[in-house]
Design goal:
globular, Type III pantothenate kinase, 247 residues, Nucleotidyltransferase, domain 5, alpha/beta, 8 helices, nucleotide-binding, 6-stranded mixed sheet, Type_III_PanK, 5-stranded mixed sheet, pantothenate kinase activity
Length: 247
Protein backbone atom coordinates (compact mmCIF):
# COMPACT_ATOMS: atom_id res chain seq x y z
CA UNK A 1 0.00 0.00 0.00
CA UNK A 2 1.12 3.55 -0.79
CA UNK A 3 0.44 6.57 1.41
CA UNK A 4 0.16 9.91 -0.36
CA UNK A 5 0.47 13.07 1.74
CA UNK A 6 -0.54 16.28 0.02
CA UNK A 7 -0.07 19.43 2.09
CA UNK A 8 -1.70 22.39 0.39
CA UNK A 9 -2.13 25.97 1.52
CA UNK A 10 -5.19 25.26 3.66
CA UNK A 11 -5.39 21.51 4.42
CA UNK A 12 -3.60 18.18 4.32
CA UNK A 13 -4.88 15.17 2.40
CA UNK A 14 -3.83 11.60 3.25
CA UNK A 15 -4.63 9.14 0.46
CA UNK A 16 -4.07 5.39 0.49
CA UNK A 17 -3.54 3.62 -2.85
CA UNK A 18 -3.49 -0.08 -3.59
CA UNK A 19 -1.47 0.15 -6.82
CA UNK A 20 -3.62 2.63 -8.83
CA UNK A 21 -6.81 2.21 -6.79
CA UNK A 22 -7.68 4.90 -4.24
CA UNK A 23 -8.94 3.01 -1.17
CA UNK A 24 -9.12 5.76 1.47
CA UNK A 25 -8.92 9.54 1.74
CA UNK A 26 -8.54 11.51 4.97
CA UNK A 27 -8.52 15.30 5.20
CA UNK A 28 -6.82 16.88 8.22
CA UNK A 29 -4.82 19.92 9.35
CA UNK A 30 -1.28 20.31 10.65
CA UNK A 31 -2.59 20.09 14.23
CA UNK A 32 -2.87 16.42 15.12
CA UNK A 33 -1.62 15.39 11.69
CA UNK A 34 1.22 13.24 13.05
CA UNK A 35 -1.16 11.05 15.04
CA UNK A 36 -3.49 10.68 12.06
CA UNK A 37 -0.61 9.62 9.80
CA UNK A 38 0.51 6.98 12.30
CA UNK A 39 -3.03 5.56 12.48
CA UNK A 40 -3.27 5.32 8.68
CA UNK A 41 0.15 3.65 8.40
CA UNK A 42 -0.82 1.05 11.00
CA UNK A 43 -4.30 0.42 9.59
CA UNK A 44 -3.15 -0.21 6.03
CA UNK A 45 0.35 -1.59 6.63
CA UNK A 46 1.89 1.16 4.52
CA UNK A 47 5.17 0.27 2.81
CA UNK A 48 5.83 3.38 0.71
CA UNK A 49 5.10 7.06 1.21
CA UNK A 50 5.38 10.27 -0.76
CA UNK A 51 4.83 13.79 0.50
CA UNK A 52 4.11 16.91 -1.52
CA UNK A 53 4.13 20.15 0.45
CA UNK A 54 3.73 23.73 -0.71
CA UNK A 55 4.64 24.99 2.78
CA UNK A 56 7.21 22.39 3.99
CA UNK A 57 5.54 22.39 7.42
CA UNK A 58 4.88 18.65 7.38
CA UNK A 59 8.34 17.53 6.24
CA UNK A 60 9.74 17.27 9.77
CA UNK A 61 6.92 14.85 10.67
CA UNK A 62 7.62 12.67 7.65
CA UNK A 63 11.36 12.59 8.36
CA UNK A 64 10.67 10.81 11.65
CA UNK A 65 8.57 8.02 10.12
CA UNK A 66 10.24 4.61 9.97
CA UNK A 67 9.45 3.43 6.46
CA UNK A 68 11.85 1.86 3.99
CA UNK A 69 10.59 3.85 1.01
CA UNK A 70 9.97 7.55 1.56
CA UNK A 71 9.94 10.21 -1.13
CA UNK A 72 9.75 13.95 -0.47
CA UNK A 73 8.81 15.37 -3.84
CA UNK A 74 11.16 18.11 -5.00
CA UNK A 75 12.52 19.58 -8.21
CA UNK A 76 15.29 16.96 -8.08
CA UNK A 77 12.96 13.94 -7.93
CA UNK A 78 13.23 11.78 -11.10
CA UNK A 79 10.06 12.11 -13.17
CA UNK A 80 8.85 10.39 -16.36
CA UNK A 81 8.90 13.52 -18.55
CA UNK A 82 11.34 16.18 -19.72
CA UNK A 83 11.07 19.45 -17.79
CA UNK A 84 11.68 22.46 -20.04
CA UNK A 85 10.66 25.07 -17.47
CA UNK A 86 13.19 27.91 -17.47
CA UNK A 87 13.31 28.08 -13.65
CA UNK A 88 12.72 24.47 -12.50
CA UNK A 89 13.77 25.24 -8.92
CA UNK A 90 10.84 27.64 -8.55
CA UNK A 91 8.27 25.23 -9.97
CA UNK A 92 5.75 24.06 -7.36
CA UNK A 93 5.85 20.36 -6.55
CA UNK A 94 2.07 20.19 -6.88
CA UNK A 95 2.43 21.19 -10.52
CA UNK A 96 5.06 18.48 -11.05
CA UNK A 97 2.63 15.90 -9.68
CA UNK A 98 -0.19 17.11 -11.91
CA UNK A 99 1.99 16.84 -15.02
CA UNK A 100 3.07 13.34 -13.95
CA UNK A 101 -0.59 12.36 -13.66
CA UNK A 102 -1.30 13.72 -17.14
CA UNK A 103 1.62 11.87 -18.72
CA UNK A 104 0.83 8.63 -16.84
CA UNK A 105 -2.87 8.61 -17.76
CA UNK A 106 -2.61 10.14 -21.24
CA UNK A 107 0.81 9.03 -22.54
CA UNK A 108 2.07 10.41 -25.87
CA UNK A 109 -0.75 12.97 -25.97
CA UNK A 110 -0.96 16.73 -25.54
CA UNK A 111 -2.52 17.55 -22.16
CA UNK A 112 -3.45 20.75 -20.34
CA UNK A 113 -4.06 20.42 -16.59
CA UNK A 114 -6.05 23.19 -14.91
CA UNK A 115 -5.95 23.13 -11.12
CA UNK A 116 -8.60 25.45 -9.65
CA UNK A 117 -7.68 25.95 -6.01
CA UNK A 118 -6.22 28.81 -3.97
CA UNK A 119 -4.57 29.80 -7.24
CA UNK A 120 -5.49 28.54 -10.70
CA UNK A 121 -2.57 26.85 -12.40
CA UNK A 122 -2.31 25.85 -16.05
CA UNK A 123 0.29 23.20 -16.96
CA UNK A 124 0.92 21.85 -20.44
CA UNK A 125 2.82 18.75 -21.53
CA UNK A 126 3.10 17.90 -25.22
CA UNK A 127 2.86 14.50 -26.86
CA UNK A 128 6.66 14.24 -26.94
CA UNK A 129 6.68 14.17 -23.13
CA UNK A 130 8.02 17.72 -22.79
CA UNK A 131 6.65 19.93 -20.04
CA UNK A 132 6.54 23.44 -21.50
CA UNK A 133 5.13 25.42 -18.57
CA UNK A 134 1.84 27.24 -18.16
CA UNK A 135 0.33 30.02 -16.07
CA UNK A 136 -0.75 31.00 -12.56
CA UNK A 137 -3.68 33.27 -11.69
CA UNK A 138 -5.74 34.06 -8.56
CA UNK A 139 -8.38 31.52 -7.55
CA UNK A 140 -12.05 32.25 -6.92
CA UNK A 141 -11.77 32.87 -3.18
CA UNK A 142 -8.69 35.04 -3.66
CA UNK A 143 -10.55 37.20 -6.18
CA UNK A 144 -13.47 37.75 -3.82
CA UNK A 145 -11.09 38.49 -0.92
CA UNK A 146 -9.07 40.98 -2.95
CA UNK A 147 -12.12 43.05 -3.89
CA UNK A 148 -13.18 43.20 -0.25
CA UNK A 149 -9.66 43.93 1.03
CA UNK A 150 -8.76 46.64 -1.48
CA UNK A 151 -12.05 48.57 -1.35
CA UNK A 152 -14.00 50.16 1.48
CA UNK A 153 -17.54 49.10 0.62
CA UNK A 154 -17.51 45.85 -1.32
CA UNK A 155 -18.61 42.89 0.86
CA UNK A 156 -16.69 39.71 1.65
CA UNK A 157 -18.54 37.03 -0.32
CA UNK A 158 -18.40 33.25 -0.50
CA UNK A 159 -18.13 31.32 -3.75
CA UNK A 160 -21.65 30.83 -5.21
CA UNK A 161 -22.80 27.22 -5.44
CA UNK A 162 -24.99 27.61 -8.53
CA UNK A 163 -24.74 29.13 -12.00
CA UNK A 164 -24.37 32.91 -12.03
CA UNK A 165 -26.07 35.14 -14.61
CA UNK A 166 -23.74 37.35 -16.62
CA UNK A 167 -25.80 40.46 -15.77
CA UNK A 168 -25.64 41.16 -12.05
CA UNK A 169 -28.64 43.15 -10.76
CA UNK A 170 -27.12 43.97 -7.38
CA UNK A 171 -23.62 44.63 -6.06
CA UNK A 172 -23.47 41.06 -4.71
CA UNK A 173 -24.62 39.59 -8.03
CA UNK A 174 -22.26 41.85 -9.99
CA UNK A 175 -19.30 40.69 -7.90
CA UNK A 176 -20.32 37.05 -8.32
CA UNK A 177 -20.66 37.52 -12.07
CA UNK A 178 -17.32 39.27 -12.33
CA UNK A 179 -15.47 36.61 -10.38
CA UNK A 180 -17.15 33.39 -11.51
CA UNK A 181 -17.93 34.32 -15.11
CA UNK A 182 -14.58 36.08 -15.40
CA UNK A 183 -12.87 32.87 -14.34
CA UNK A 184 -14.93 30.86 -16.82
CA UNK A 185 -14.01 33.25 -19.65
CA UNK A 186 -10.35 33.00 -18.63
CA UNK A 187 -10.35 29.20 -18.62
CA UNK A 188 -12.34 28.88 -21.84
CA UNK A 189 -9.98 31.37 -23.49
CA UNK A 190 -6.90 29.50 -22.32
CA UNK A 191 -8.31 26.19 -23.55
CA UNK A 192 -9.15 27.68 -26.95
CA UNK A 193 -5.60 29.04 -27.27
CA UNK A 194 -3.99 25.67 -26.53
CA UNK A 195 -6.38 23.84 -28.85
CA UNK A 196 -5.63 26.26 -31.67
CA UNK A 197 -1.88 26.01 -31.19
CA UNK A 198 -1.54 22.28 -30.48
CA UNK A 199 -4.73 20.82 -32.09
CA UNK A 200 -5.70 17.72 -30.11
CA UNK A 201 -5.37 18.50 -26.39
CA UNK A 202 -6.73 16.64 -23.39
CA UNK A 203 -8.19 19.11 -20.88
CA UNK A 204 -8.18 18.00 -17.24
CA UNK A 205 -9.84 20.17 -14.58
CA UNK A 206 -9.08 19.48 -10.94
CA UNK A 207 -8.84 21.29 -7.60
CA UNK A 208 -11.29 22.38 -4.93
CA UNK A 209 -13.25 24.72 -7.22
CA UNK A 210 -13.48 22.34 -10.19
CA UNK A 211 -17.10 21.43 -9.53
CA UNK A 212 -18.09 25.11 -9.23
CA UNK A 213 -16.58 25.84 -12.65
CA UNK A 214 -17.14 22.76 -14.80
CA UNK A 215 -20.88 23.31 -15.28
CA UNK A 216 -20.28 26.69 -16.90
CA UNK A 217 -17.34 25.83 -19.13
CA UNK A 218 -18.25 25.39 -22.77
CA UNK A 219 -15.27 23.19 -23.62
CA UNK A 220 -15.12 19.40 -23.32
CA UNK A 221 -13.07 18.55 -20.23
CA UNK A 222 -12.23 15.71 -17.87
CA UNK A 223 -13.08 16.60 -14.27
CA UNK A 224 -11.03 14.69 -11.71
CA UNK A 225 -10.87 16.06 -8.13
CA UNK A 226 -8.22 13.47 -7.17
CA UNK A 227 -5.87 14.09 -10.11
CA UNK A 228 -3.08 15.51 -7.92
CA UNK A 229 -3.22 12.51 -5.58
CA UNK A 230 -3.11 10.15 -8.55
CA UNK A 231 -0.11 12.05 -9.87
CA UNK A 232 1.73 11.73 -6.57
CA UNK A 233 1.00 8.01 -6.55
CA UNK A 234 2.37 7.78 -10.10
CA UNK A 235 5.55 9.61 -8.99
CA UNK A 236 6.00 7.18 -6.11
CA UNK A 237 5.46 4.18 -8.38
CA UNK A 238 7.91 5.56 -10.93
CA UNK A 239 10.71 5.71 -8.33
CA UNK A 240 10.97 1.91 -8.32
CA UNK A 241 11.55 1.72 -12.07
CA UNK A 242 15.01 1.34 -13.59
CA UNK A 243 14.61 4.41 -15.82
CA UNK A 244 14.00 6.55 -12.74
CA UNK A 245 17.08 5.15 -11.01
CA UNK A 246 19.20 6.01 -14.05
CA UNK A 247 18.18 9.67 -14.01
Amino acid sequence: MNLIIDEGNTRIKLAVFDETLLVDLVVTSIDGCEETIQKVITKYDIKSLIVSSVTDEINHIVSGLKLLNKVVLSNETPLPFKNLYDTPKTLGVDRLALVTAAWSQYPNQNSLVIDAGTCVTYDFINKQGEYLGGAISPGLKMRFKSMHSFTKKLPDLDIPLSRVDIIGKSTKQSMESGVLNGMVFEIDGAIAHYQQKFKDVNIILTGGDANSLCKQLKNSIFVNPNFLLEGLNAVLTYQSKNEAKLK
